[in-house]
Amino acid sequence: MALANHATPAPRNRLLAALPSEDLARLWPQLEAVPLPLRKVLSAPGKPITAVYFPETGYVSMLAYLAKGDVIEVGVVGNEGIVGLPVLLGDDNDDCEAMVQNPGTALRMDAAALRAELDRTPAFRTLLLRSALFQHRQVVRTAACNGRHHTDQRLARWLLIAHDRAEGGSFAMTHEFLAMMLGVRRAGITVAAGQFQEEGLIRYERGRIEVTDRPGLEAAACECYGVARRALDQLFGSNAGRRASAATEATPALLRASL
């Protein structure tokens, strides 16, 4: 159901929350609150993108498939971004699959409506372009990390990224799915996760992972997590911080200054 236009509450998606109030009020009737069930595919390779999603809770994995059926995660979209960036960049399909990794909610917008708003709302277009740059940097860093860093470092990085976007301190995840996300053998994940648990960094049971020592996990990660976090700071301002869930009052002013 489309959101009523008589009230414009602060959205939990940080891109939308960073918009000037008058622009958000104009967009609000075109947004539809929808659930993001676990493993739901929001867009598939080669298929038209008919809608974009602004996650508010939970997060979405961007997955690249290979000819033999192998799959690897190349990016994650949470409440800092948008699912459906090709629409912004003039295309109507993607090479990646967008699949809900952690269930939550999102604000859905018709792809045609998004295109219509890009010229009408410069602040909206600017935010989306900055989000596209952030996602590009995330993909580049993921490629470098996967090619050069050890499994335990990559696992720590992924757990931190998930922890930033998860509601609460734990999230559902299996060793098998982590191995697929990182493109490594399951045995490697089992060893690394077991080591983290022995060191008190995480607690893993019944398919759920809880981060119990955030600073320790950051110390175990490679530098790629810090690079990605700094890129997020650049998108929303230096107060983006860890596990931030909403844009600050200063963000709209930062946006207006950049236009």
Account of the 3D structure:
The chain folds into two domains: 14-146, Jelly Rolls (Sandwich), CATH 2.60.120.10; 150-221, Orthogonal Bundle (Arc Repressor Mutant, subunit A). 45% of the residues lie in helices and 22% in strands. It has eleven helices and eight strands. The protein has helices at 14-17, 21-27, 85-88, 111-120, 122-148, 151-165, 175-182, 186-198, 214-220, 224-236, 250-258; strands at residues 31-36, 41-43, 51-65, 71-77, 97-110, 170-172, 202-205, 208-211. Strands 1, 2, 3, 4 and 5 form a five-stranded antiparallel β-sheet that branches. A hairpin with a 5-residue loop joins strand 3 (51-65) and strand 4 (71-77). The model is unreliable at 239-259 (pLDDT under 50).
Say which CATH homologous superfamily of the largest domain is assigned.
Jelly Rolls
The appropriate CATH architecture of the largest domain is Sandwich
User: What structural class do the secondary elements suggest?
Assistant: alpha+beta
Query: How many beta-strand runs?
Result: 8
Query: Strand content of the residues, in percent?
Result: 15-25%
Low-confidence stretches: 239-259
Count of folded domains: 2
